[in-house]
Amino acid sequence: MDSNRTEPVTTTISSSSNNERQGYQSITLGSNDSKRYSYLSIFPPKTSVITPGVYDHLLLANVPNSRLGPDELRRRQQASSTTTDASASINYDHDRDPFCLSSEDAKELSTRLQVTELVIKNNADRLSSICYLLLGVHQLFRRKVLERPDVAVKNPTLNSKQMSILLEFFLQIDVDVFYMKTCRFRGAEPCSTMQGLFCNDELPQARYSMAPCRTNDCQYCHSMENQNQNSSRSAAIDFENSSQHRFVNGYTTYLNCPATCTTSNIVYVMTCPCGQYEFTDSTSATLVDALRHHRLVCNQMIHSYLTGSALYHQMMTTSEQYQYALYLATHS
User: Residues 147, 149, 151, CA angle at the centre, nearest 5°?
Assistant: First the structure.
């Protein structure tokens, strides 16, 4: 299977009336993928009434104008025009809630990203709902899986400044592409050829890459050098293609700032050599630390299976054990 080729899905991703002209076609979002749809940024809805099967229009911040339909272009123009902003009717009464954006931070984002304040506030509310949903999943996991309901843990919260940073990322996690064109963190500079949130006439482009740290004790940098000596080995980190990554389903991400294998607080993806499986995770440590942990865990799992650990045999039938052995041999 070629992980770099994905046939496009013939479906519109905006909720459309019968007379609305067809617009951008997503390659990763299916017509029945309502769960993922709820995690994407949208234009402010015209009504608060929720109609089953009908979705609001996606923001499509990383789609160039040339790939949008007439109705999508009109919505983008309206969202970029501050003269039509209905900010006077925006309610900021709950600025002190755990996952809310203050009026000052909303105005700052609106000005810098060149979109209406209504777009900012609407998606801030959407992001806040996602935060509460994930918090509920976290609490359920602790209660059902960890079985520690009696241990009090302080719920994670975000202040307005932190929500502002998170929202800037959220607005640019598009339906088919993540491209953080306005990034100002860790030595990154906003894209000079793009003004504001929307790509407009330009396609996303690779601007940063991951470089080897070149420290003497880094096995991941040296694994790249050793690859020339032993062709049967491949480098653990693909530095040459680190500027962007195309997932198996066709979704593309662009690195948003310069990085090395010792950069901490990152999101990373590991792709199986077969090209059909991927594992995405995040770590507050470095990529080297994360890879070292994964190798340790995988080795322990393989060792436990091969040595007949009672835990693994109690969890699986004979048929499942056979399939698991094949899986470990193929994808470890």
Answer: 110
149 CB burial (10 A radius; 0-12, 13-18, 19+): exposed
Which DSSP symbol is given to 49?
-
Supply the range of the domain harboring residue 90: 1-202
Residue 269 lies in a domain: no
Q: Kindly tell me the burial class for residue 236, based on how many C-beta atoms sit within 10 Å of its own C-beta (0-12, 13-18, 19 or more).
A: middle
Cα–Cα distance between 21 and 81 in angstroms, integer? 23
Mean pLDDT (the chain) is 78
Distance CA 321, CA 30 (A): 34
3-class secondary structure, 225 = helix
Q: Please check whether residue 47 lies inside any domain of the structure.
A: yes
Higher-pLDDT residue of 79 and 19 is 79
**pLDDT for res 182:** 92
The whole-model pTM stands at 0.78
State the total domains in the chain: 1
Q: What is the largest CA-CA distance in the chain?
A: 70
Helix axes 117-144, 103-113, angle to 10 degrees: 120
Instruction: Tell me the C-alpha distance between 220 and 225, whole Å.
Output: 9
**Three-state DSSP class for 155?**
coil
Residue 221 domain flag: no
**134 part of a folded domain:** yes
